[in-house]
Structures are given as structure tokens and as C-alpha cells.
Design goal:
The chain contains 9 helices and no strands. By secondary structure, it is mainly α. It has helices spanning 2-8, 16-25, 29-39, 44-62, 67-76, 78-86, 92-95, 103-113, 119-125. The chain starts with a helix and ends with a helix.
Length: 126
């Protein structure tokens, strides 16, 4: 299905990070179809704005409201918890940029910087 998105939106093969973001945010076939409907024939800036808006919606819908939930998930899987917190795809290399392994500290910094803070900015302070 992601190949269909790539073709429909004329996304270049070198746009690896864009495709990772799309794969992360548009998990269901319905989300991918909506992306195509909204962005087909549009430029890259429009697609990026759409994905930013979608990321914010997912943070509000799926993100953590409770520090305890985040802490428990963080103890089980740092990557999964941080992906849910920031709603962006991560890997071990990116996760290594976090200075702290304390989920309470990370959650508090996240709240201080704002719910929509990107992981790279959060990593500067946590």
C-alpha cells in the first residue's frame, strides 16, 4: 500500500525520511487513502504540512496524558514509549541522543517544552 502512496503522490525514491514518516503516521489503509485524497497533485511542502497536522492530531489522540502510563511503557520499551510520546519514528541511534533514562524527567521536560515538541528538541533537554 505504501508503494501506492508513493506513486500517487509522486514521491522520489530518495525521500526515505518522508516515507518513514508516512509509514509511521498513516498506518491504516484508510489513513493512507485520506493522505492520497488530500495531497495528490500537491507539492512537498503541502504534504509536509499535512503530515505535521496529522502528527499533532495523533499526539492529542494517542499521546500520554499521564506520567505513570509513560513511565510504565518506557520501562517496557523505550522506543515504543518515545514514539508514542512524540509521534515520530525513532530508532536506537536517535534514542541514544537522550541524555536521561529517567522517564519522569523525560515526561516533565516534554510537558515543559510543549506537547508537540519534536524528539530532537526534547533530546537536547532530557
Amino acid at each position: 500500500m505504501l508503494e501506492r502512496v508513493k506513486r500517487a503522490l509522486c514521491i522520489d525514491d530518495e525521500a526515505i525520511n518522508l516515507m518513514k514518516t508516512i509509514a509511521f503516521l498513516c498506518v491504516t489503509a484508510q489513513e493512507q487513502e485520506q493522505l492520497i485524497e488530500e495531497c495528490q497533485g500537491k507539492d512537498c511542502q503541502y504534504i509536509n504540512r499535512y503530515l505535521i497536522k496529522l502528527r499533532k492530531e495523533k499526539i492529542l489522540k494517542l499521546g500520554y496524558d499521564d506520567q505513570l502510563d509513560f513511565s510504565e511503557d518506557f520501562q517496557r520499551s523505550k522506543i515504543s514509549a518515545m514514539e508514542r510520546l512524540c509521534q515520530e519514528p525513532l530508532n536506537e541511534f536517535k534514542l541514544a541522543n537522550l541524555k536521561s533514562n529517567d522517564p519522569v524527567h523525560i515526561f516533565n521536560i516534554h510537558r515543559q517544552r510543549g506537547r508537540f515538541v519534536r524528539f530532537n528538541e526534547l533530546a537536547l533537554y532530557a
